[in-house]
Automatic annotation (TrEMBL):
GO MF annotations in UniProt: acyl-CoA dehydrogenase activity; flavin adenine dinucleotide binding
Species this chain originates from: Pseudoalteromonas luteoviolacea S4054
UniProt keyword Oxidoreductase present: yes
Full protein name: Acyl-CoA dehydrogenase
Record-linked Gene3D superfamilies: Acyl-CoA dehydrogenase/oxidase, N-terminal domain (1.10.540.10), Butyryl-CoA Dehydrogenase, subunit A, domain 2 (2.40.110.10)
Superkingdom to which the source organism belongs: Bacteria
Keywords: FAD, Flavoprotein, Oxidoreductase
PANTHER family for this protein: ACYL-COA DEHYDROGENASE (PTHR43884), ACYL-COA DEHYDROGENASE FADE28 (PTHR43884:SF20)
InterPro entries: Acyl-CoA_Oxase/DH_mid-dom_sf, AcylCoA_DH/ox_N_sf, AcylCoA_DH/oxidase_NM_dom_sf
Amino acid sequence: MSTFQKAQHLLRGTLPELAQYLKETSFDELESEQSQAITIFRDTGGAPTLVKQKYGGKGLNAWQAVQLQMAIGAASPSLAIAVGMHQFSIATLQEMAKVGNGLESLMLEGISRSNLLVSSAFSEGQIGKSILKSSIIAKEVDKGYVISGVKKPCSLAHCMDLLTASVQVEPKDGEPYFAVAMIHKACEGITVEKFWQAPFLQASQSEAVVLENVFVPKSMLVNVDEKSAYQSHVAGFVWFELITCASYLGMVSGLVAQACELGRLQGADKAQVHVQLEACALSLKAIAGDMESQTQDTLAQVLSVRYHLQEVLAEVTQSTLSLVGGINYINNGYFATIAQVIHAFNFHPPAKHAMYAPLNNYFDGQELEMV
């Protein structure tokens, strides 16, 4: 049984109602802006899949999380992107819980108990800027903080229940410092604006989340020292890359499965693409097996795997679509959608060319500078 087949089996065993829904619902409906896939994921128990059992969740490990993303990605790319945002947020919260003040643990228990979906507005790596800098500002006021800023795109924009955000705190006295805020979507001052204009991934709800003078009590903001903050960000990036790779690997695995069903992928061509995809899956398995303590080495390894996957998945997509043929491509919107979606893999941070210089330094024996 291939890794992809095992992934589908895991989905059926872990979330059987979701698996049935994805099987019975057309691809066009799953990917439309009106799709109910995210709601179904939540309503069928998807939210706590990655939450550890001690917090009341299902406790999937990293490799199981990869397999779950692969299976979801094959059925609905939009759902995979949205679920990936949630799973990355859960993983980051759990990393923070190791050194936090207890708020993270309480949030994780609440997520499991109430099936809450979590989106995130953590800072993203940019060339020349520290990952510990955030464009979201929290100004200290009596009894709490007033938060303002924009996160775009932000998947799960409409269906999220909670937003975790890295913020730059401006205290009444003293120097600004880094912190993490837990914000309920119901808070006054949160709005969602249209941002995503591309014709694909419409169902991922990747819009702009605007925070305008959102009040957050002191109990919902966690001060993080620089060392712990950096480690949490490194762990978060590792999880983000792992989950994102799994999502796109699932999408291409689904494409290959469709081509096989049509009888357009046979013999040596079929074997070759399966060998390529299986090797990709095993590289993710290697990373997933080393997730207990993420280090700069883990980050360099997952980035290396991610950039290699970009090339392999683009190659497999192109070769498979050429065998599917023009008539199938024209008459079935699925193939054109997948062709566009796979290209979007290149745009997830950090971009390959932006990281070449830091990776070169790392391969020369220096520390990896996560920008």
